[in-house]
Design brief:
By secondary structure, this protein is mainly alpha-helical. It has helices at about 10-30, 35-50, 50-80. It has 2 domains: about 10-50, no CATH class; about 50-80. About 75% of the residues lie in helices and about 0% in strands. α1 crosses α2. The chain is rod-shaped. The mean pLDDT is about 90.
């Protein structure tokens, strides 16, 4: 994985996600994976899928941000002195 990771998880969050991945693989595929394969899978998901999710979140928030900043600018103009 590159040095410039899109995201990093705290140790606690990573441990939780790794546990969830191991349970998922066991429940859905009847495959027991250890810590290292789970870590590789998590890294793969973050590297390959993470950018798409990140970009989608940016796209989803853009209209809200546009509306919010437009409202702030309108409010600022109301403070102008004639």
């Amino acid at each position: 994985m590159s040095k410039d990771k899109l995201m990093t998880l705290s140790d606690e969050a990573e441990a939780l996600v790794l546990d969830e991945l191991r349970v998922y693989m066991s429940d859905e595929f009847d495959v027991d994976i250890g810590n290292l394969p789970a870590k590789f899978l998590l890294d793969f998901i973050i590297e390959k899928i993470g950018p798409h999710l990140y970009n989608q979140m940016i796209d989803d928030n853009e209209p809200w941000l546009y509306d919010r900043f437009t409202a702030i600018l309108e409010d600022m103009h109301s403070f102008k002195k004639d």
